Amino acid sequence: MRIYELGFILKPDLPAEEAQASVDGVKKSLTDGGAKIDKVDDWGKRRLAYRVRGFWNGQYVFIQYSIKDATSLTREVERRLRVADNIIKYMTIRIDEDLKRLKKAKTRRAKRAPRLAAKTAARAAETARPKPTTPGRPKPERPGDGGPAAGAA
After folding, report:
1. What is the pLDDT of residues 70-91, one digit of tens each?
2. Count of CB atoms situated within 10 Å of the CB of 5
3. pLDDT, tens digit, for every residue of 7-17?
4. In the structure, what pLDDT confidence band is assigned to residue 134 with cuts at 50, 70 and 90?
5. How many angstroms separate the CA atoms of 38 and 4, rounded?
């Protein structure tokens, strides 16, 4: 199962009904192609980083969908987005590989956690224990320290 995230930006001056109709059209084309829509995020109107097709603002919409094995669906949906008048920019990202990588990292972290906790406990016990003092060289005497040389003067 492949999981994709489709993000697109609608024109900022669209009425709410037309914007919702555009989102519903994209959702319909995905479901007609055999995709299952997992999540729809409407971020609302935001400022763009740079001007796109003469607009400084846009309405951001993200749709996460999963599909078995139809790579032509993504191409078809992107073709429809390219010719749509209400959509000024779009991008499709495959995120299932990232999700697998995150899951694998979590399992590795979970395996490593007991060893790391044991190491941390050992270090804490070692620092809490007083260190034995070893006899070292005597400190050199300096003039004016009040040592034997000071009494002779």
Report:
1. 678 888 899 999 999 999 999 9
2. 18
3. 999 999 999 99
4. low
5. 10
pTM passes above 0.85: no
Helix (H) / strand (E) containing 22: helix 16-32
Q: Which residue has the tokens 């270090």?
A: 123
CA distances for 56 relative to 9, 52, 84, 149, angstroms = 11, 7, 19, 84
DSSP of 11-69:
-TT--HHHHHHHHHHHHHHHHHTT-EEEEEEEEEEEEEEEEETTEEEEEEEEEEEEESS
Strand 36-52 vs strand 55-67: parallel, antiparallel, or unpaired? antiparallel
Cα–chain center distance at 3: 16
**Best CA proximity match to 63, nearest among 88, 27, 100, 94:** 27
Please give the single-letter amino acid code of residue 77: V
Provide the residue type at 71 as one letter: T
